[in-house]
Write a structure and sequence with these properties.
Blueprint (H helix, E strand, L loop, with lengths): L6 E5 L7 H10 L1 H6 L2 E3 L4 H11 L7 H7 L2 H11 L4 E5 L8 H10 L4 E8 L2 H14 L6 H11 L5 H8 L3 H9 L2 H9 L7 E5 L9 H10 L19 H14 L8 H12 L13 H21 L2 E3 L25 H26 L2 H13 L4 H4 L5 H54 L3 H9 L1
Parallel strand pairs: 1-3, 1-4, 2-3, 4-5, 5-6
Protein name: Sulfotransferase family protein
Amino acid sequence: MSTRQPVVVLHVGAMKTGTTYLQNKVLANRDALAEQGVDFAGERWRQQVSAVQDLLSLAQHDPNVEQLSSGAWDRLVHQIRGTDARASLLSMEFLSFAGEEAARRAVSSLQGLEVHVVITVRDTAAIIPSLWQTSITSGGVTTWPRYTKVVRASMRAGGRVGSGLARAGVPSARRFGEAIDIPRMIRVWTSVLPADRVHVLVVPGSSAPRDRLWELFSEILEVDPAALTAPPEHVNESLGLPSAELVRRLNAALRLRQPSQQRTVKVDLARDGLGPLRAEERRAQLDPATFRAALRWNKHIRSVLASSGVRVHGDVADLPTEADPADYQVDAVQEPAAERELIRAARQGFRTLRRLNRRLVREALPRQGRARYLSHLAAQLAFPRGWQAADDPVALAVEDLATLTRSAIRLERLAARRRRRARRRKARRRAARQAARRAERRAERRGVSGAEAADASEG
């Protein structure tokens, strides 16, 4: 990277390519990066999320997201322009969704700065199951077999079929374009930047040392990874097939309209509640047809890399075009999640959501109303002991989880309102104390006693 002018590095994803690992690694080493001249833009990473949502108009009619994101891109750009670091880093995988118009707006807003883009790319066969799970925890309702069928179709004709399906409103095809269609991302960013400012980082395979990805990223940032040794605090973990299928059915029952409401499902239920089951549950595995299509797509990506003029970091051999299906646990049978597996996951989810509701009741409601609320909530539930007597135990379990989820969302909204009121009261008390101190200082200068000054300020 040139040092003639300040540099901005936009790490645009793609999704499920180690982005969470890299972001948390950067956060863990933020001060050490600053010592090497790299500023991670914004005071908190949440500001980067809001900025990209603003740039790409991703509020999705959610008033909470709209409030946070309105004007956020311009505010972040202003902060970037105000830093004296040699380079600023923005890492937010939603930028991989950008079309040419949004990419042009981003680069134009950074005029006068040297903009570089980093696209992280991973073996397609390795990420398809993870992408399905991400779509599910984000509110999706597409089954695993249907998802793989749409992904296979989307890869045809160099991704043009996927683009057409996405325009037709097929959710899984849109996810393909946002996360797997690396050639599209390369076309978008090379249309607004010189090719040598677009860096494609090939994520090392599973046999490589874990730090190898960080070393390659550090190479792009021109920093010494040996001085950046703090481990990331959090990395994304996948769900087992039964847990993911349970969440999919819950999404179908809930049909949440606002992305901010999905946090209860994504974080509290899926990550914190069902996540611990991953070691005991079987995973979603590729079928032979999807596996072959993924290898062909890797070949297409490698061809585009060779002809595009972008700067490649890492080894393109980590995008295999030939591989042993056994290494990927390819499954020709594709047995769906059984009732007993779903009920086991539902029991875990039920316990998680009940604990969440008990905690939120304490945060959201006055003491005298808590027992009545929990009693009313319990009266709406069949409980795990009642599921097995039903004609469809899984459907009844999902109803219970939906009831608990809706309750948690409602309580969280009330708790947030209560926290806002508490902050306003605290601010008023602080302002009153400051006013009293100012009155005391003025009184002291006039020779009036402190008690008289306090009485005067209250009056």
